[in-house]
Amino acid sequence: MNILIKDIDIIPVNRKDEILKSTNLYIQKGRISHIGNLREDIKVDKKIDGKNKLLMPGLINSHTHLGMSLLRNFADDMNLTDWLTKKIWPMEAKLNGEDIYWGSLLSMGEMIMTGTTSFCDMYFFMDEVGRALENSGMRGVLTRGIIEDPKNPKEKLNETKELYKKWNNSLNEKVKVMVAPHAPYTCSPEFLIKTIELSEELNTGIHIHLSETKKEVEDSFKLYGKSPIKHVYDLGMFNSHTIAAHCVHISDEDIDILMENNVYPVNNPASNLKLASGFAPVSKMLKKGIKVSLGTDGASSNNNLDMFKELNLASLVNKAVDLEPLSVPAIKAIEMATLNGAFALGLEKEVGSIEVGKKADMILIDMDKPHLYPKHNLVSAISYSVNGTDVDTVIIDGNIVMENRELKTLDMEKIKYMTEKRTKDLLNR
Ligand SMILES: CSC[C@H]1O[C@@H](n2cnc3c(O)ncnc32)[C@H](O)[C@@H]1O
Ligand SMILES: [Zn+2]
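# LTUXU72L complex -> structure
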């Protein structure tokens, strides 16, 4: 379908904080084919009026656990260790594939409705997440989270291989598959090496939790005499493209390792605040040229998947922590949520900014809301005033998946009903 968006303001993101005012954008065969004045005779299947709207790249949630929306508001006000071991892991042991399918659909509906077009998920029953992705029309990286099981060390590695064979580059290349050892505290060094070897065999990336809490770092020094980042670096992990969720408690030496090895840290501000884990030294990493992106983590530690909230928090928290208003400026936070996310997912040539030739993943924001007047500065509006429910239209891979806030691919009423039903059932298992 050829789509023409007329008279629209655009934040392209790849041109610092430059804004294109009242221009036109033309989409052909799923890609942005022209921005600016257009010939009269172009073929248009669908015209969108861009007046009073703002167009920007779709947001990229670089670290999440989609199935965890089933456990939203289920275990709160706890630290990570208690939360995982006392509440989450016992409940996750009871989840089945159908639960994950409906939980992931719920998450995808919420993400589309708040402007996210791509994600990187780490969970289990990932075939079901693939099925949900196919129905929703989203773009995503699927990673089977692996907690080592010494009794059956090969099972989850084989699941990852199967997942890769079935889904990698499928659905018009909207799906990628990576290898996901959960964390250095749930995988032995020997097993981590096996996951690294698998990523090399499949020629794909790694997705892992690293240095999330002070306890994790202290335990790592006790066990291995080094930080989690130095530990996995010494094992050879960073020879593969690595997405490292959290990186909260990191030293200057750790930051240098991340920089020298082109590691992609993901900042999850809401989850880190809520689990009382701390806050990552984001501005220090950005200053070194590290492409820090943003994620929500799961809906059980956040407790929502609205990336505009993460973008806002990233900018605000870092200013307060550094006592420096320019710590993470508005446009940097937007870049973290878009282009840097594309780098993390290995998709920077295809998505993450509004450029001719890139795939048409974009969102239109309704700027005719009271909290968005007056319009002094559109970049500031996105960082400090917009929230996810201001997103009006979402386009992924050139397909309109939401228009005027109406979802085109998903039946949200059915999804809400099914998740409610499955959650009640889960509590009685
Ligand atoms: C084995 S699939 C992924 C695994 O990760 C757990 N998880 C969710 N949030 C976090 C977090 O912030 N740190 C570490 N682990 C987390 C999730 O519950 C799954 O068990
Ligand atoms: Zn996580």
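# post-check
Residues 65, 80, 84, 88, 92, 122-124, 145, 147, 182-183, 209, 212, 271, 297-298, 301 surround LTUXU72L (ligand 1) (CB under 6 Å).
The longest strand covers residues 20-28.
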